[in-house]
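Late entry, evening session. Most of the bench is empty. Finally got around to the prediction I had been postponing all week. Sequence below, unchanged from the version circulated by S.P.
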Amino acid sequence: MAIQKLHLLRFVVPKNQVSQFRNTLYEKGLFHLRDVSSLSQSLLPNHDEVSQIESDIRKASEIISLFDTFQPEKKAFIENFIPKKPIFSKNEVSSIQEKQQFQEFYQEVMSIWSQRLSSLELIEHMRVLYQQLIPFSSFSFSFSDFQQMQRTKVLFLQADGRKLEDLEQFEFLRKNAVIVPAVNVNHHKKEKTHGFIVAYPSFQQEEIQVYLNRAGLKEFPFQTLIHSPRQEILNLEQKIQKHLDDVAKWERVLLDYKEQLSTIYLWKDFSINKIIRANGMKRFAQTNSVAYIEGYIPSEQSLDVEKSLEHEYPMIYIEVEKTPNNPPVKLKNHPFIQPFEFLVRMYGLPRFGMIDPTALVGLVFIVLFGIAFADGLYGISMMAICAYSMKKYWFDKDTVSFFKMFFWAGFFAFLFGALTESWAGDLFTPSYLPESSVFIKLKDFVGVMNPSQSFIALMVGVIYVGAFLQCTAIFMSFLQRCKERQYAEAIFNNLSWILFIPSAVIVAGQFLSPGYYPSMLVFISQQVCIVALVLIFIGGFLQSKNNIFKGIVKGFLNMYGIKSSYGAATLLGDVLSYLRLAALMIATSSMAMSFNLIAGMFKSIPVVGIVVMAIMILFLNVFNFLLNIIGSFVHPVRLLFYEMFGRFYEDGGIEYHTYSQKFTNVFVVKEAKR
């Protein structure tokens, strides 16, 4: 439970070994490279190599997009939060990486895709022509007959909603051209003019064309047709069917190739990793003959790696700095604690040198969540959902950690729910279950209090929790200042408040409820309060060394909190802020009770009343579960980040990123479960 100690390794590498040495650092996967390119001209990766890799990434993305267009997959709702990715074992990754047949695969897929698109375009064109020919199918002429005419010109024109009367209004057309409408007969609708056949003397072509343009008529593309309309329609049907067969054939082949789509995602990651490896050189500095490299590494691995590199590269120079200034932050926690690093990262990584708060954050979060979401049945349901999700998404480390965090949050919700007699509100009562039910006996056996009947006691308990957590946060600050040897700050600004807060709570409790605490405890608390206030006053006074009057003023201001990191006003506001947890606990239980009451109204319906009531109880409690789980997460996190972190936490740490192979589009596990 700490921020891992790092060593800084410095390397001076001969220019002719830089690429090989870079690859070695990458394969070890331990180093966080420090950018030292500003010291001199940075090294640049091979331009042709990078261009080829970037081309491979574009090709992989193109194939993925192609298959998504060809056969899009419907996403389940959960996949919006947990993306579905292919799963590979480490052995499969090594085997596929060795083969590297991506270029051939890309060319074959794109060739088939291109042929499919060409066939589809031809089919679309032929279908349009087919529809244009249908109204002329009753005519027995051949298109080749019109092409041989020299004195007469014949045009096939689109009607565009016009009727024969619309053309005959042009006297010139009526006298000098023969116009025959082509009618599309539909038995369910009225006849509709689809086009016109216009015949006229060739020498009047220009004049006729002027009037046709005025009428807004366009010519059908029948110039290449030879046979009769009926025969051309039959020919088109055959051609369309042939191309449809071709499309079906290409699509069957594409479906076979789609089975390898998961490999494309892996190939894309290979290419991305090649770019990362190549661009690592941009962080190096160089002279005419050597390259200079710096990288952080965990201290326990430093010596072994140093010896290994010296043996493999006898010509390089290595220097180790065991206490580097402001290194990146690498959290090191027990597997049980690791899921709660998610909360720390939400706020920001701690600066290097701070005490790692992850364990404290995790414990406080699950306790506060449990208080806010206190319900035995909801807690068990949450644990079951999280356990199922951890089993289902076993291959995704981050997802498993996320659900593991909420599993323990659900456990504390179950624990506090059982203690406060809340099981989906009042579901475990004679109103909904038989009086002899084991669930009612269980509720009565483990229940300690009912918040609805003992709300004052609940408020007092939550205030105690708030005061304790404030003391804990200040104690963390006390430890941090002692670690950094700021002893005066630790005593006057931390220890003083650690003494004051619990004693002030007892004194205030005695004032509000005389006789509640033992007289000896009250007396000791009063004395401790006085000592703590003196320490707080001295802390403010010492801030003004030369002026006694200013020192006295600052001493009193220090008590209020203006001149210190804490104060009486801040204490009051922070502790009372925890009352929101009591409100959330009551809200979760009260809403469940209200929903149960509504559902219970259906119980009196003959025959189906019990079934309807059960369905309503299930539906409404699921709604209440989803609604209150949001607030039960947000408010504890808010109390952590604002009321607690404000007392001791300093963010600004830089995440430790290894210079190594990473997979973002696939999951790589030790052994894939098929």
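Two things to note before I forget:
Residues 44-128+234-281 form one domain.
The chain is about 60% helix and 10% strand.
Will write this up properly tomorrow.
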